[in-house]
Structure formats: C-alpha cells, structure tokens
Write a structure and sequence with these properties.
The chain is mainly beta and 124 residues long. 9% of the residues lie in helices and 45% in strands. A five-stranded antiparallel sheet has the order 1-10-9-2-5. A three-stranded antiparallel sheet has the order 6-7-12, with no helix packed on it. A two-stranded antiparallel sheet has the order 3-4.
C-alpha cells in the first residue's frame, strides 16, 4: 500500500512535531472501485453483506498484515479494484489507498481474501 491519504500525512506531520494527534487505535480494510490521496478509497460497496474488516499489522519497518483479511460476501458487489485503510469500521478517516494487483468481479456470494503479509504499509 503506497499512497497515504492527505489525512494520514497530516496526522504524521503533527505527531513528528509533538502536537499529540489522536492516533488510530484500530485499522480497518475496505474495498472499492477507486481512490486517491485526497479522498482515500472511493466506491465502497453498500450491498452484498459487505463490511470493512479489522487488520492487525506487524513489522519493525514496513508494516504487513499479520493475518489474512477476509471479506465474506452474501451477494454481488460488482467489480472492486482498490483497497483502503480507515480508522473506523464505518465512516471514520481514510488512511491509505492502493490498487489491487488485479480487479475482482464479485457477481454473487463469495470471499475476497488478502493473504497474510500481502498488505504492506511503509512511509518513504
């Protein structure tokens, strides 16, 4: 995951300047159709049993998801092409966004799985 959102960059800048920002206590992965640094993820599904999934990261430099992240869907959500990170299970602030290696067409029930250590986050 290579694109930090504007919100995340501002959060880091305040932390480095000892301005005590409220850092996220949990991080949630989300799927969508697009995204950019200004808005974060766009086109997040609203049907098919879709819900953001909590992610736990580990590492000493670059951070990677410690366990597989699974989105279990009860119905169609269309084509997804991006993944994003948020500081809340719904709403909240966008933290990062990236394109998936290849879009996934979810035309019915199924599971989208991000393997352990496949979702990485680094600054630099």
């Amino acid at each position: 995951m290579t694109i930090l959102t504007d919100h995340a960059r501002n959060l880091l800048a305040r932390a480095l300047a000892s301005r005590s920002p409220a850092l996220p206590t949990q991080v949630f992965a989300a799927l969508g159709t697009g995204g950019n640094a200004a808005q974060g993820l766009t086109g997040e599904p609203t049907a098919g049993g879709y819900a953001r999934q909590r992610v736990t990261f580990s590492g000493t430099g670059a951070q990677a998801n410690a366990e597989a992240v699974r989105f279990v869907l009860s119905g169609a959500i269309g084509t997804i092409a991006h993944i994003g990170l948020f500081d809340a299970a719904s709403g909240g602030n966008p933290l990062a966004v990236a394109a998936l290696p290849q879009p996934a067409v979810m035309s019915g029930p199924g599971t989208v799985t991000i393997a352990a250590e496949a979702l990485t986050l680094s600054v630099g």
